[in-house]
Every structure is written in C-alpha cells, then in structure tokens.
Amino acid sequence: MNDTTPETPKLSWWRRLSSGLKRTSSSLGTAVADLVTKRKLDRAMLDDIEDVLLRADLGTEVAGRIANAVGTGRYDKAISADDVKTVVATEVEKVLAPVAKPLEIDSSQKPFVILVVGVNGSGKTTTIGKLSAKLSAEGRKVMLAAGDTFRAAAIEQLKVWGERTKSPVIAGTQGSDSASLAFNALTAAKEQNIDVLLVDTAGRLQNKAELMNELEKVVRVIKKVDASAPHAVLLVLDATVGQNALSQVEAFHRTAGVTGLVMTKLDGTARGGILVALSEKFKLPVHFIGVGEGVDDLAPFTARDFANAIAGIES
C-alpha cells in the first residue's frame, strides 16, 4: 500500500494542471485540428498555425519557431493534429526548461526575506498564504508582514493565514506606512530567530509612479536592516491578463529587481501561453504556478508537465 502513496499527489496535481490549462490547450488543439484536416501542409497552413499560437499568447518568437519546426521535412504531406501537438510540446519545453527552478531558501540568511510584489488582483496575498503553509510544513519558522497597507482586506487575509499556519503576523492600521512596517517586521524577525519573512506589498499598478517609488522605499528600508535583503523578490502574475503581464514584469523588475515569478489563475484563461512568452523574453526563474484556490494548487513549476498540458498531450 505504502509504495503507491507518493504517486497520488503527482497524479492529482497533473490532473489539476491539465484541466486548469484545458481552455488554452483545447482552443489551441481545436484550431490546429481544424487546419490540418483540410489540406496538406503548405506555407499558408504554417502561417495559420502561427496565428493560432499567437492567439494563445505564446509570443511571436516562440510561435514562429514552432511553425518552422512543424514545417521541417513535412511540406506537401498530410500532417496530423497530434504531430503538431508533439512539436508544440517539444518547443515549449525547450523555452521553459532553463527557467523552471525551485525557490531555494538559503538557511544561512536568517531571516531569509522574500518580498512579494504584483498588481492588485494577481493573487499576491493568497500566494503568500500558500507559501507560508508550504514553508511551515517543511518545519521552518515563518513570519508574515502585511505590507499592503492600502487594503484592509489584504491585512485581514494575512492574519487569517497567520492563524492557519501558526505564524506571527506584523501588521499596522490601514493606510500606515508600508516601508516602516517592513522595517519593524524585519527587526522583529531577527529578534525572534525567524527562518523566513514573507513581506506583502501594495498592488501597485505599474504606471503609478508614486506607488513604484514607495516600493523602492520598501526595498531601501529593508536593506538598512540587512544589506543582503530582500533575498528573493517574487512577482505574482495573473495569467488572465495575457500580454499585459509583459509590461508588469518590465516595471517590477526595474523597480524591485525581481528574482522569480509565480503565475496564478492558469485555470481561468485560454491565454496560458503567456508564461512561455515571458520565459522567452525575460529568462526569469519560474518558481510556482497556481491552478486553483486550494493550498495544494500552488505547486513547483515543471517544464515538461506544463508543455504537455498546454499542448493537450496526456502525460
């Protein structure tokens, strides 16, 4: 009985991932199937395949490469939808494999400070809660800092996660200064011998200069307490925003020095390909992806599983 137990989470996660990406894979798969059943492969069909890939937000570079790979050695021949799916999965995996990296906590840095950034509605506060649950389950002492001081709901949400994971939460009143809150949290985390400090930040829109300035201030203040911190800056992105994610990565990377990405809400969109476009352009590590609301729906990112799920290949 025992030797089969470890497999269960893997299977259920794969099912969640493939069903989460169903809207992306089925819109890709249906469009490709419609194209390839009608005629032999020619330049026009490759252009059409490229258009389908672009609509899934895979990005121009990757879409072009996949179309070329589909065309190699197949001109004037009948091609099946499965052939195209295989090429899509192979090419997508090539892009994702170098960026699929786990979040590594350096235990020599105490506390290891993780700053979590992203626009409102991206799932930032929920991601912090899920991360705190994961890290606590690994036996680490975690502290949460409710640095999104604009939203009372975000502060309350973190307090709930703190209770759930038995982690202390440093919070101020709504509208209080988020930089001084970060300062207080890091000081307290040092005193309490905390392993990991997770700092929430306001969901600033990337075009709001004053909010970006405030994020810069949070980073500066953290460095005053520990020059090596923050040790990780995670940008949480909502897959449903599609191409807007590109400008979000640019703005947050410039302001806070993003070290890794978390992509949420992949189950709510036909634009799951945006993760591929981001990886191609920015080459930033992708640590986690989320395909639902549950604690277990945030999982480490694996390139092959994602590539197969997006292509609609059973793994």
Brief descriptors of the model:
12 helices, 8 strands, Rossmann fold, 315 residues, alpha/beta, 2 domains, elongated, disordered N terminus
Description:
This protein is an alpha/beta fold. It folds into two domains: 2-96, Four Helix Bundle (Hemerythrin (Met), subunit A) (Up-down Bundle); 112-302, 3-Layer(aba) Sandwich (Rossmann fold), CATH 3.40.50.300. It is 50% helix and 12% strand. It contains twelve helices and eight strands. The chain has an eight-stranded mixed sheet, sandwiched between helices. Strand 2, helix 7 and strand 3 (169-170) form a beta-alpha-beta unit. Helix 4 crosses helix 5 (81-96), helix 6 packs parallel to helix 7 (152-164) and helix 9 crosses helix 10. The longest helix is centred in the C-terminal third of the chain and has 17 residues, at 209-225. It is elongated and about 70 Å long. Mean pLDDT is 90; it is low at 1-7.
Quick description:
This protein has 315 residues and is of the alpha/beta class.
Please list the strands of the largest sheet in the order they lie side by side.
Answer: 3-2-4-1-5-6-7-8
Number of continuous helical runs:
12
- Give the CATH architecture of the largest domain: 3-Layer(aba) Sandwich
Query: Helix fraction?
Result: 40-55%
In terms of quaternary structure, what is this? single chain
**Termini Cα gap:** 23 Å
Instruction: Report the major sheet.
Output: 8 strands, mixed
Using the CA coordinates, give the radius of gyration: 21 Å
Return residue spans where pLDDT drops below 50 for at least 5 consecutive residues: 1-7
The arrangement of helices and strands along the chain is HHHHHEHEHEHEHEHEHEEH
Report the CATH superfamily of the largest domain.
Answer: P-loop containing nucleotide triphosphate hydrolases
CATH class of the largest domain: Alpha Beta
And the CATH topology of the largest domain? Rossmann fold
Strand content: 5-15%
Taken together, the total number of domains comes to: 2
Overall geometry: elongated
Mean pLDDT: 90
The assigned structural class equals alpha/beta
Q: Give the number of DSSP strands.
A: 8
